[in-house]
Amino acid sequence: MKSIVKKHFKKVQIKEASTKKELFEWFNNNEISYLFLDPYNIKSFDLEEIISLNDQFPKCKIIITTCSQHGISESLLYQKVIKGYICKTNKQNIFEEAIAKIEEDEAYFCNEILSKIVKNRIENSSEMVYQLTNRETEILKLIGEGKSGEEISKELFISVHTFRTHRKNIMKKTKINSLSKLVLYAINNSLI
Length: 192
Hints:
Layout: H1 2-8, H2 20-29, E1 34-37, H3 47-56, E2 61-66, H4 74-78, E3 84-87, H5 92-103, E4 108-109, H6 111-131, H7 134-144, H8 149-156, H9 160-174, H10 179-188
Parallel strand pairs: 1-2, 2-3, 3-4
């Protein structure tokens, strides 16, 4: 990775950090343009800290480089917190292409990551189809749109009690216990 970065950026200072403390100290004392980060190599580095880095240092372009695909966070992509997501198993030309795109202020996600995201989407949506009835899916969509129980009841010509029963069943099937999380679930499953 170092050689690729040095080749692409002629005058560059590269610093490696193996702990969060080192990383944050470097950020506080230097202006950093690019951060190549493997959150799985820094112990207990989490999503909130990546978002915090982006908030504190918005000029820094964060690129996730990892071998681990199990924890792909689509929310980082949707919130435009990171500029790239690249598997370390890719060939050198993929890294060079990614750096070039990111330098032009475009986002770059390698094919392995995109395939994993699509696979996760398909699995999640098929799980939901099998879990929820058509009526429950319809109610979840309306909940996701921010409609109240009374509005949904009137729109679907059902009683408020029937709506509450459906909502309770949706929460039980999806293992979600709050309305706000239900709305996120609806968004993540492309219902709204």
